[in-house]
Amino acid sequence: MSTKTPGRSKGLNGWLLSTPALVLLVLAASGPLIIVAIYSVLEKGDYSGVRWILSGDGWFGVLFQRDIFDQTVSLADANLTIFWRSVKLSIMTTLITFAFGLPTAWFIATRPPKARAFWLFLITIPFWTNLLIRTFAIMEVIRNQGILNTALIHFGLISEPIQILYTDTAVLIGMTYVYLPLMVLPLYAAIDRFDFKLIEAGYDLYATRWQVLRGVILPIIKPGIIAGSILVFIPSLGAYVTPRVLGGGKNMMIGNFIELQFGQGQNWPLGAALSTVLLLIVLVSLVVYTKASTREGPHG
Amino acid sequence: MAKPRAFDVTTLPGFTFVAILAFVLLYAPIVTLVIYSFNGGNSVNQWGGFSLQWYAVAWQNEAVQDATARSLIIALWASVISTALATMAALGTTRRGRFKGQTVIYVIINQPLMVPEIVTAVALLIFFSSVKIATGYTGLGYLILAHSAFCIPFAYLPIRARLEGMDTAMETAAADLYATPWQTFRYITLPLLLPGVIAGAMLAFIISLDNVIITEFVKSAGQDTLPTYMLGQLRRALTPEVNAISTALLALTVVILTGFVFVTKKRD
Questions:
Q1: Dmax over Cα atoms in chain B, in whole Å?
Q2: Which residues cross the membrane (chain A) (predicted)?
Q3: Are residues B149 and A28, on separate chains, in Cβ contact within 8 Å?
Q4: Which residues are within 8 A (CB) of A98 and not within 5 positions of it... i.e. 6 or more apart?
């Protein structure tokens, strides 16, 4: 019952209290990932599933394809296109959400306390609104007969509707739209803790607004920037719903391609290998982010 | 802008404009969707006057009723389980000082946030399909288990944030006054922590209700939740019925959120 036992027993308590959560997570989240890695080196089953024979075909299929007739090997252009599209769209999504997210978070954090709660509430409604609903909503806006095209035609800016739906642009718009709150919330948390006296000090030392932003604000809210970027980049990279709905099957991203292997493609080892690749990309970006946030100290 | 007012250090040029623009852009599509759900016409493209007919259609649809009930059952279980486990873990990782292996706990707890959902979904598909064959059980348990797991980090984050922001002086004072650790927890820590716990549970509930991908991969035949039902409907065409369901679900979210804000305000 002693509350002042030092060292070892403290650690034990921490582990004990965390154990139930850890057991569930290992059972229904982390553990199965290991199975994915194992499946990626097995042989493809006849219809779906795998045969328990070691095989490199899954990994081979990530980058290469074998011609059905003459067995010649070539780079799998389609796969590379999908990878490139995923990475490109995810980076762009992260940048655009940051461009909108930083001013939005700043705006909320600098309101008087009562108003702050209201604006924060406004940002959390879209955040907690079903991703599918928000994707439908964006679809409603950008489809050919949607309000965007109707408005543009109405004002005589265009004569024919612009085809946005089922393009990469649609996927980008959709992802920016659905992931924006994920950028705003951690940025807000960081700015909310920010000591505005530091800005005053900056101005007192004759810094311009830009210098204050670059030299004072950004370095201090960096943990929020990193958190927001990770929270946007990772779901973007593995996005499944938004590309499926707005990309219309043609403009696939890695997530849809993986699903295809487990569904129609019936190539579980390839799907598992692709999943592992996605995991590795995520792991690398996490390491890069961590390095970036620890190497540069408070002096930037 | 050179008003006689005192120079405001908190304003940055252009920030307010972009922020307002962001809010307008966030809400315009949702508002459009809501308006179109009251469309009397048979197509999503033509406005056929105000009508509630699509709500009636959705309301009478048995598949929608089933999916709604299933969604709520799963979300309730998942939020209760994940919040309980996350509260324990948050106490274990913040209140006992630093200890060996703490980073491992953080990594495992936050893992569902880090790993793309599609990968987790595929992993669970492989794992649970073997378990289904081995045990013969095909009930909702798998979905509840999976939902509870990925809701843990969402419940954990606000609880931990609340714990870290809490002054330990009260707890120390309680201990100095010979309160047992349990009494300290029951009368000091838990009441102070409650807003965090509620926030965590709310987050978990909505996250579970919202989930599409993992549910789509883990569910057995005939176990559609509202989102997977809607996604399935989309294979054909976007119908006004889906708009109506979306609006109803949106309304539910807003109601829960408003209630939540009200409850937490009262406690302050």
A1: 77
A2: 20-42, 89-109, 115-134, 172-191, 212-234, 268-289
A3: yes
A4: A183, A225, A228, A229, A232
| β partners of residue A74 | A65
Name chain B contacts of A240, Cβ cutoff 8 Å.
117-118, 212-213
**Token match 């486990």: residue?**
B85
pLDDT > 70 fraction of chain B, expressed in percent and rounded: 90
Using 50, 70 and 90 to split pLDDT, how confident is the model at A101? very high
CA dihedral sign of residues A31, A36, A38, A39: positive
Domains of chain A, each with CATH number or no CATH: 1-35 (no CATH), 77-295 (1.10.3720.10)
* Contact between A88 and A172 (Cβ < 8 Å): no
Count the Cβ atoms, other than its own, within 10 Å of residue A110: 21
CB contact under 8 A, A145 and B45: yes
Contacts of A271 in chain B (CB under 8 A): 122
Q: Which residues from chain B sit within 8 angstroms of residue A29, using beta carbons?
A: 111-112, 115, 120, 123, 149-150
pLDDT the model gives residue B71:
95
* Rounded Cα–Cα distance for residues A32 and A42 (Å): 16
Contact: B16, A103; criterion CB under 8 Å: yes
ipTM above 0.85, yes or no: no
DSSP B115: S
d(CA B147, CA A206): 53
What is the amino acid identity at position B47?
Answer: W
Instruction: Please give the structure tokens belonging to residue B145.
Output: 């288990």
Question: pLDDT > 70: what percent of chain A?
Answer: 93
